[in-house]
Model the fold of this input.
Amino acid sequence: MVWCCLCAVIQFSFAQKGYKDSSAPVDERVKDLLARMTVEEKIGQLCSPTGWEMYEKVDGHTVRVSSAFKEKMQDMPVGLFWATLRADPWTRKTLETGLTPELAAKALNELQRYAMEHTRLGIPLLFAEECPHGHMAIGTTVFPTSLAQSGTFNPDLIEQMATAIAAEARLQGAHIGYGPILDVARDPRWSRMEETFGEDPVLTGIIGSAFVKGLQGDDFRDGRHVYSTLKHFAAYGIPSGGHNGQKANIGLRELFSDHLEPFRIAIGAGAKTIMTSYNSIDGIPSTGNNFLLTDILRGQWGFDGFVFSDLGSIEGLATTHRMAPDIQYAAAIALQAGLDVDLGGKAFGNNLKQALEDDLVTMADIDRAVANVLALKFGMGLFENPYVDPAQAARFVHNDKHKRLAREVARQGTVLLKNEEGLLPLSKTIGSIAVIGPNADNLYNQLGDYTAPQKRSDIVTVLDGIRAAVGPETVVRYARGCAVRDTTQSDIAGAVRIARQSDAVVLVVGGSSARDFKTEYIATGAATVTVQKEDVLSDMESGEGYDRSTLDLMGDQLELLDALAATGKPLIVVYIQGRPLNMNLALQKAGALLTAWYPGEEGGHAIADILFGDYNPAGRLPVSVPRSVGQLPVYYSLGKQADYVEESSSPLFPFGYGLSYTSFRYDALSIQVDDTTVNIRCTVTNTGERDGDEVVQLYLRDDVSSVVTPPIQLKDFRRLGLRKGESKQISFVLNEDDLAFYNLYLVRKAEPGDFTVLIGASASDIRLNGTFRWKGNGER
Done:
C-alpha cells in the first residue's frame, strides 16, 4: 500500500511539472513535451540555420539579439543554430566586428534567454560550432590540423586536445562541436584532405574515437564538454577526379571495410551526432540514403543520437543530384531516410510542413526526428541550466595550458623525412641562419582552413620560433623569396643573397588554406576558384573548394628551392601544407626535410624545438607521399604494385614513415593465442645516443580469405618513449573483431585460418614477422 501511494505521488508530481520535471527519465520528458507541441514547433526543432547574424554587437561590452533572430523565433521557433560564433571572411566577422570569448558567452546567453522566456514552451537552443582543430571563434586556441593530429600516432594526446577544445567551446555557450572528420582520404588532389586523419581506416578510427572522448567526456552536464559531430557520412574522401563533393566510385565491401569503419569505431565510442556528406554512392546521395542512415547507423550500430545534413545537402537532392522534383520532395526523402536536422534550415521549415499535408511524410516521421533532438537537450541538462558564465569564458579560453598543449601536438605531429649526415639538430650558437620562404613568416598560412581571425601576437611563425630559440650571438636573417602562388613579387636574388651570408638555410615552403576577403564563396561556405580579378594571386591553394590537378609546389617555389640549393649552404626544407605536395626536388636537394602539415598557433615554436634538438621528432606520416599524380591512388594497403615505365610504383615516402635523432632495434616477437584473443609482444630498444619516442606499428595479413583482403593492414600502434639504451616490452591484444572482415554476404566475421603479423616502423619498414592460426568456434 505504501509503495502504491508513493507511485501515485510521483505520477501526480510529473503530471504537474511534465517535461520540466528534472527528476523524470529523459524518454518520459521527451514524450510529454512532444504531446504539447504544435506541428510548427516540432518542425522548428529540426531546423539549424546559420547563427552569425543572430546577434548585434552594441559596443565593446554589450550584445543583444538581432531582429533576424526574433523573426526566426516567431511562428516556427528554431531548435538549433550553427556557427553563431564563427568568424572568417565568409561570415564577414573580423577581430573588430566579431566577439571575444566573454562577449560570445554573453551573446549566446541572450539568445538562449529569449528562447527560454519568449517562446510558448521555453525549449532551450542547441548551439553547434566548428571544432576540428580548435573552436572556430575569435580568441580561442588554434591547434594543428587533422593530418598533424593523426601524425602524432598518440590518441591520449589527441583526447587531451579535444578536451581543451570542448571546454573552450562549452564555456562560451556551445553544445555541439563539429568534429572529428572521419573521411578516409586517398586522393590528395581533393581540397579537404587537410581536415582528415589520412588514408587509413584504423588510424582514423582510433584517433577519431580519442577526439570523440575528449569532446564528450563522461558527463554532458558538467559544463565543460560538448556533443561530437562525426563528419562526413560517407565515402566523402574519395571524390571522382579529386573534385570536392563528387560521387564516390566504390563497391559495398570497400565502403564497409574502409570508409564506414572509422564511423563504426567512433559510434562505439559514444558519438552523439553525425553529419551526412554531399556525395553519392552508387547513385544514392548520402543525405537520402536509408540504407546508411537507418539500416546501418541505427539498425546495425545502435546509434542513439541525431543526424545533421551538411549545409544545403537536402536541397542538393533536388538540384545537384536531381533525384527529387523540388525541395519539398527532397525534404521528405531526407527525413524518411533517417535524417533529423536540416543544417541551414531552408529545406525543412514550410517545405516539411507542406510535405506533411501532402502525405509525403507522416507525423511519426517528424516525431522520431524531434525526439532525437530533444533527448540530447534533456541529456545535457539545458532545461535546468541553459546559461554560461561569461567571466569563466574570459578567464579560461586560450589559457597557457592550452597553448602548451598546442605546441606539444605540433611537435609530436611534425615528421622528419630526411636528415642527411646528421645535419639536424642545428646548434643554437650557429653563427647565422637564413630563414626564407612564403610560409616562414605568414601566420595564416600555418593555421589551415576553419580558422578564425587572429591577433598577430598570439601566433608563433617559424621565423618567430627560430628567433626565440637561438642565442643572442646568432644572426637570423629573413627573406620571403616568393609567394605560394603569385609570381609578380618574387625576389629570389634577394633570398640567395642572405643565404650566401649565412651558415645554414631554413626554407619554409608548401601551401595555404588561408581565406581572404577577396575570395568568393558559394552558399555552403566553400571557396570558389575563379578567374583572377586582382593583380596579385592569393596564397590559397588548399581548403574546401580548392581542388588541385597536380601536387607540384606552385608559383616560384621550386625555382627558389633550386637557387638556394645552388649556394651550397646546408639546406633544411620545411613543408607547411594541407595535402602531401610533391617533394621530389626537396628530397634531392635538401640536407634535411620535414613536414609540419598546418601546425597551428604554436607551430613556430614546435618546429624550432625540432630544428635545434630541444625535441626529438617522432611524428609519422598518416598518408603516403606520392612521387606524382600519375601514381594515384597510392595508399599503402594496396600492397606492392608493378612499376610504371616512367617511375617506381612505390610512394616517395610510405604511410607510417618518420625519422628520429636516435635509432631503435626490435626483438623478441612472441605470439600467443587463447580462446578469445591474440597476444603479441615484442621488445624495442633505443640504440642511439639520444632519448626519443618510437611509434611501433602492428600490421596484419589474413593469408587466405573467402574474399580479397589487403595484403597489409594496420591494426594497432603504440607511441612509447625510451631513454638512450633503454629497452621496453610492448604488448598488443587483438580480438576476434580485429581479425574480422566483410565476407561474401557482407557479414563482418573472422574466418578460421592463418594470419601473418608484421611489426615495424612504417608500412614499408617491417622489422619483425610471425604467424598464428585462428581456429574459430572457441577452438585454439
Observations:
- Residues 664-774 form a domain with the Immunoglobulin-like fold (CATH 2.60.40.10).
